[in-house]
Design goal:
The protein is an alpha/beta fold. Helices cover 39% and strands 17% of the residues. The chain folds into 2 domains: 138 residues, Aspartate Aminotransferase, domain 1 (Alpha-Beta Complex); 235 residues, Aspartate Aminotransferase, domain 2, CATH 3.40.640.10. The strands form 4 sheets. The protein has a 7-stranded mixed beta sheet, sandwiched between helices. A 4-stranded mixed beta sheet has the order 2-3-4-14, with helices on both faces. It has a 4-stranded antiparallel beta sheet with strand order 12-13-16-15. The radius of gyration is 23 Å and the shape is globular.
């Protein structure tokens, strides 16, 4: 692209989304992202961008970070995933150090070749026992687990029926596998029944996969898993549940909603991620069907063609599972539940709109796009961190913080954060910038 095409341009940094700037008409596919890049950089320069922050300290209730423009943020952290603070636990750190000494740093291949380590095999056995399943298979990321298991199971003639708010990895796996993808209204059993009944009547021999989550991060709510499981039985559908957000962090023994709702061992396929509670990248798929591991090892691209979890990562996750199953884990879950309830109560007392029920996630609806960006910008200036979820991920009038609560947050941390959130909101309402734009500096 020549320099004449790089003309300065003014951007409204408080309104719009990347959908407004992506240029699908440009013949050069890379150039299509130029306007998005310029708008994104303008947002960073104008303190209207909360994304891609860089941490400069270990993950914890208080953190040191910088934003994309290089500004330092040091303060309260409700923006990272470490529900039980196990990444800081001495036993987990010792396990990581021992794994480096004994097994080295690198898996050296995919699990289908020579990437399996003794620690990874042990971890798969631990996950299977933890979930009362016959077998479990570990994949390099949680995304790979969700995407990969659907791609391994579903063929073009099959159907996937999926909750409208299910994770993107499940949607992308479904759409890559078949054109027969059907959304049902979020947690709506009646809508699910109607869709399954119609599909089965029209396609009596087709494979059908129903996919949902045990805890939804956008809403902090859960489906009726027992009812959904029975519907799947009645219509001959396979039932898949993503436990990424609650496994290890909730439930009497850390098994999350599937434990609380009494459906352990009854769900056909369980998948999850290690990144929320288990202090590592990685994910898993568990089942009582003996052929699923073969499908994932040999017929799942994200497993067959990706390096396996390293010995260090495997040891870290194994140590976290050990702690989750111990009295320490029980106490940490109790602390987490207390913190979530306190944060919800304090925010509601100040008039914030809070979704769902107590969990490691507290969704706080802020309002439309410009207001939510201004509140979040003000919060950062007050040295508090929260993740903003914007349109198109959520409706334009319902942008929200997705607060990540940790067992290690103190009552003072929580009440201090709420005080800063109140100030940030008041500042945004009192002094909204009228049509603020930033002249593009590097297009």
């Amino acid at each position: 692209m020549n320099s004449a095409e790089h003309k300065p341009k003014a951007f409204d940094i408080w309104n719009g989304s990347l959908l407004d700037h992506y240029d699908a008409t440009a013949p050069n596919m890379l150039d299509r992202w130029h306007p998005v890049m310029a708008w994104w950089d303008a947002r960073a320069q104008g303190d209207a961008d909360p994304y891609a922050k860089v941490t400069n300290s270990e993950i914890g209730p208080r953190i040191t970070a910088t934003d994309r423009s290089g500004k330092r943020i040091e303060g309260l952290n409700f923006a990272t995933q470490d529900c039980l603070n196990l990444s800081r636990h001495p036993a987990v750190r010792r396990a990581a150090a021992d794994a480096v000494a004994q097994g080295g740093l690198h898996a050296g291949g995919s699990a289908a070749l020579m990437g399996l380590s003794a620690g990874l095999v042990r971890l798969e056995q631990t996950i299977a026992r933890f979930l009362d399943c016959d077998d479990a298979t570990v994949l390099p990321t949680g995304w790979a687990a969700g995407y990969g298991v659907i791609r391994a199971l579903v063929r073009p003639q099959d159907h996937v029926v999926i909750d409208a708010l299910a994770h993107a990895c499940l949607f992308e796996g479904a759409k890559a596998a078949t054109g027969n993808v059907h959304q049902f209204d979020h947690n709506n059993i009646d809508d699910l029944v109607q869709r399954l009944t119609r599909i089965r009547a029209a396609h009596p021999a087709a494979g059908i996969l129903v996919a949902t989550e045990s805890l939804f991060s956008a809403q902090s709510d859960s489906p009726d898993l027992a009812a959904m499981m029975q519907i799947c039985r009645d219509t001959g559908a396979l039932f898949l549940v993503d436990t990424a957000h609650d496994l290890g962090a909730t439930g009497p023994t850390g098994r999350g909603e599937i434990e609380k709702q009494g459906v352990l061992r009854a769900i056909d396929v369980i998948m999850g991620s290690f990144s929320k509670t288990f202090a590592s990248a990685g994910g898993f798929v568990a089942s009582n069907h003996p052929a699923l591991k073969t499908a994932l090892r040999l017929g799942c691209g994200p497993s067959r063609y990706s390096n396996a979890l390293s010995p260090v990562q495997s040891a870290v996750v194994q140590s976290c599972f050990d702690l989750v199953s111990s009295p320490t884990g029980s106490q940490l879950r109790s602390d987490l539940q207390h913190n979530s309830a306190l944060l919800r109560s304090a925010l509601r007392h100040e008039g914030f709109d809070i979704l769902g029920g107590p969990s490691p996630i507290v969704p706080v609806v802020l309002g439309d796009v410009p207001l939510s960006r201004r509140i979040t910008s003000n919060l950062f200036a007050l040295n508090a961190l929260a993740n903003l979820v914007e349109f198109p991920s959520v409706p334009q009038t319902a942008c929200r913080w997705r607060l990540q609560v940790m067992a290690g947050h103190s009552d003072d941390d929580i009440l201090d954060f709420v005080s800063r959130a109140v100030t940030a909101r008041r500042q945004a309402l009192d002094a909204p910038p009228p049509g603020t734009v930033i002249e593009n500096f590097a297009l």
